Amino acid sequence: MSYSSLREFLEKLEHTGDLARVREPVSTVLEMTEIQTRLLAEEGPAVMFENPLMGDGTASPMPVLVNLFGTVERVARAVTMGGLERTKGSELRTVGEALAFLRQPEPPGGFREAFEMFPLLKTVMAMKPKTLSSAPCQEVVLQGKDIDLTGLPVQSCWPGEPAPLITWPLVVTKGPGKRKEDDFNLGIYRMQVLGRDKTIMRWLAHRGGAQHHARWKNEKTEPLPAAVVIGADPGTILAAVTPVPDTLSEYQFAGLLRGQKVELVDCKTVPLKVPAEAEIVIEGHVSLDEYADEGPYGDHTGYYNSVEKFPVFTVSAITMRKAPIYLSTFTGRPPDEPSVLGEALNEVFIPLLQQQFPEITDFWLPPEGCSYRIAVISMKKAYPGHAKRVMMGAWSFLRQFMYTKWVIVVDDDIDARDWKDVMWAISTRMDPVRDVTLIENTPIDYLDFASPESGLGGKIGLDATNKWPPETKREWGQQIRMSDEVIDEVTKKWTKMGLPGTGKPIWKK
After folding, report:
1. Cβ contact 158:298 at 8 Å
2. Gap between the Cα atoms of 54 and 134, Å rounded
3. CA nearest 346: which of 362, 329, 368?
4. What is the pLDDT of residues 351-408, one digit of tens each?
5. 481 confidence band (pLDDT: 50, 70, 90)
6. 387: Cβ–Cβ under 8 A, 6 or more apart, which residues?
7. 380: helix, coil or strand?
8. Any idea which residues carry the catalytic annotation?
9. Is the pLDDT reported for residue 15 higher than 90?
């Protein structure tokens, strides 16, 4: 099913029992975070707080929606993929295969052959967004003295944080030129509220919005226009967190995820376009020279981040629906909503990696590894040193993994998603000296205070594969396995023996 708005998606969730409504007053200060932590721990529903209380205890004029993507299943349900054939029943794996195709420098046999062979390219070209003259997201327009961010039910997530934090902003920017990488970029960057018309725009240097900002600063003197969308349709939100090629607009890819073109509308005060069906849009400019201290805020590591300077965003207009829904979340030690999204996007990454490294059989980002800091890769090993090549490839192929600290490589007979299996491989197939690769002075998330320098630290690769000569001079052990004849015979007898359980064999083929 295709969803043109957040409201259509919520109707579906409510119909299937995946949306709960809370009429009891709940504070935006800390209480919502505590409720979300309990929902996430038990894969609970999305929740609409219909009577939220502001920081000063007064009632909010708009409801707050949380835990929208609190389960992998809800993330997958948000994806339509333009009616394309699903891969192995997985919408998210299909997204990854589409991205792998789009990342090719040129399709096999040229573009004419690609049009004949691949419906995907036709679909992508047909998904260019269209612009409307009016839109629901501009039913209410606030400018000048009417602008007041403190009127929004912005969540305060953890004790001791300096100010309320906009946690689900879909930030729209456009670069200074006409290059493809200067096309519309959508990104999720948290925003500390400084006052009625100012926030801090916290974006890391490698993210699309920050790169637009850096290029704009080199070519322009006026501040960078930006629009902040709160409550877009689920396909557009997911496009903002998907590794879309730099040469493809996220709006166009969002159309593919939605199964229909994204409808946009021109902003009132900045030269940008935003989703017409959005709940709230905050228009403004990101300063080129005004910076402010951001934080400390609770982060995905489970710790408060250090205070860092980021550019100031000044609001020029707030537009919204007549009865808008405020979308919010929190960030903390997994499980949190970003870690669930990371787990879901794991399926997207697999086809991308396999395109470059077809020997990879599975790829796993354990949620407890803070979304991306630990990766486990299973592979069909073909030659000595092969595991180390795959490690280096994982660190360098996608920007998303430049901050991955631990890469564990195992053979394809090991379940990369089963820690018991992975730990067995580490304990029996590794020498702690020979099979550990250490790399110094590499890019690291500046939030990782375990690194010796801010933004610069080490990486470790564990080769837990079987060793081939000349990786070892010793005879390698033979793995214990029951004979197929006995396995089949016990399987036949299982139901007759009256034993509990499924009786499924433990042995891998």
Report:
1. yes
2. 31
3. 362
4. 889 988 999 999 999 888 887 899 999 999 999 999 999 999 999 888 778 889 999 9
5. confident
6. 379, 381, 409, 461, 463, 465
7. coil
8. 299
9. yes
The closest of 55, 58, 57, 37 to 47, measured between CA atoms, is: 37
**Tokens matching residue 432:** 């702690």
Q: Which two tokens stand for residue 185?
A: 């970029």
Tokens at 364, concatenated: 């796993």
With helix as H, strand as E and coil as C, how does 88-114 read?
Answer: CCEHHHHHHHHHHHHCCCCCCCCHHHH
pLDDT value, residue 89: 44
CA 371, distance to chain mean position in Å, is 9
Three-point CA angle 311, 341, 346, nearest 5°: 115
**How many Cα atoms are found within 13 Å in the side-chain-facing hemisphere of 128?**
4
pLDDT in tens, 334-353: 889 988 888 888 888 898 89
CA proximity to 369, closest of 290, 460, 453, 308: 460
Is residue 67 pLDDT above 70, yes or no? yes
List phi, psi (to 5°) of 270: -135, 150
Rounded Cα gap, residues 32 and 195, in angstroms: 22
